[in-house]
Amino acid sequence: MNHEFINQKFIDKFTKLRFRISFKARESHSLGELEVINDMDWVKRKIEDLSGGIVIDITEFGKANQLWKQYSDTGITEDSMWGYIDTCLTAKMKIEAIKTYRKFTGSGLREAKNVIDAREMKNKGLI
């Protein structure tokens, strides 16, 4: 198998973990708590490592599995986030869509804007 494909697979899994942590923390109003911030930062560093081609070891996957279980009992899904973002875009509330994406994923402003711009173009059938 292609090394880049495998790395992208793990990046996707860690991105979903980051998403779960942010949703669960937001739902329980604990987004600003130190433990949640540390968990989000840890996952973000792992995504950056994988994106940079750094191989992570098995103990880090164990920690990722532990975090997945810890943050998995939320009823909110990635689909519901996109549904809300699509509703915002339809209502011409692009800033709210960007804020929502940032809150749920922990991404930066530029990344969120780029993702929302792409989503808006996709929804309009331009891409």
Give your account of this protein's structure.
There is one protein chain. The relative contact order is 0.12. The radius of gyration is 15 Å and the shape is globular. The chain is mostly helical and 127 residues long. The longest helix is centred in the N-terminal third of the chain and has 25 residues, at 3-27. The model has no long low-confidence stretch (mean pLDDT 81). It has helices spanning 3-27, 34-51, 58-70, 78-90, 94-105, 109-123. The two termini are 29 Å apart. It has 2 domains: 3-70; 78-122, no CATH class.
At a glance:
This protein has 127 residues and is mainly α.
Oligomerization state of this entry?
Answer: single chain
How far apart are the first and last residues' alpha carbons, in Å? 29 Å
Give the SSE order as H and E letters: HHHHHH
- Mean pLDDT score, rounded? 81
User: Tally the helices: what do you get?
Assistant: 6
Q: Roughly what fraction of the amino acids lie in strands? A: under 5%
| SS elements, strand count | 0
Dominant shape: globular
Please give the share of residues in helix.
over 70%
Largest beta-sheet details: none
Uncertain runs are none
Structural class determined from secondary elements:
mainly alpha
Compute the CA-based radius of gyration. Answer: 15 Å
Number of domains: 2
